[in-house]
Amino acid sequence: MKYVGPPHKNGRVVSGSLQCTSCGADFPIINGIPRFVKPEEDYCGNFGYQWQEWGSIQIDHLSAHKLSHDRFLADTRWEPDWLNGKLILDAGCGAGRFSDIAGELGARVIAIDISTAIDTCRATTARHDDRANGGVDCIQASLFDLPLRRDIFDAIYCMGVIQHTPHPTALMTGLPTFLKPGAQLFLNFYEEGVWRRLQIIKYSLRLVTPFLPINVTWALSKILVTLLFPLTAAIARIPKIKILNHIIPIAAVHNQLLTLEQQRTWTLLDTFDWYGARFEKRQYHTDVAKILADSGMVRISTEPGLAWCHKPTN
To answer: Which of 12, 80, 241, 272 gives 221 a disulfide partner, CB atoms 3.0 to 4.6 angstroms apart?
Structure first.
């Protein structure tokens, strides 16, 4: 790739283009983000819409909580000191909730998303631009056609994304090719299981909602949350029955570290996530373990919705 455009601004490229020296293809740089996706290739328009509208709710430093920080470290099992100075790929970054945390901990992060949520990620993580080490660079690209060199990352994480892609297996086998020998991969995904079979209303609605205009699906999500959030909030306060919230057709979030209004907004976003996503391809973690093993990964460990592994050192 060859950069074509005006001089860098304070060490960062803001506009111009990247030109392929082999085929001559030209990829624009808009608002500091290289764009490798044509609008018609973005099958995640719902995510771009929701994160541009409500990009701050899951960002710790913008919403006065530590939920993203705590989840990132708990799920990846990476030590904060280990992240410092590492080159990390955030595969499907959304609004940048985890890119922001990794950058804060001193990692150099390449954050990639196919949707216009990448613009929100850029705004979220701009506070790291002046760090002596670390920082976050954003790229709009498909995870199935990454404009990156192979074998360069110290770690890759892909959180909450796999199930929303057209080819989960191809993604899980493709990401490790960008890891250095001995480097780590962490995956978080929707687990297949009994609860999906009990969510009859949700999956009946999903026969239609992925194909509706985004604003219609958003309006439907708001109606459902307005009607059902008071019920799920009440149920969540009763330990013996709160598990019943799994069968109510909204993605109820009742973390007591959030204000009630934050819980409502988070529930609305996750409900829209449910109904707006074109794909929802759940996985059994045991199948994920086999996929990773078949692709040559080692030290594989899985739990429902989670997988950890390493690339072989030789």
So the answer is: 272
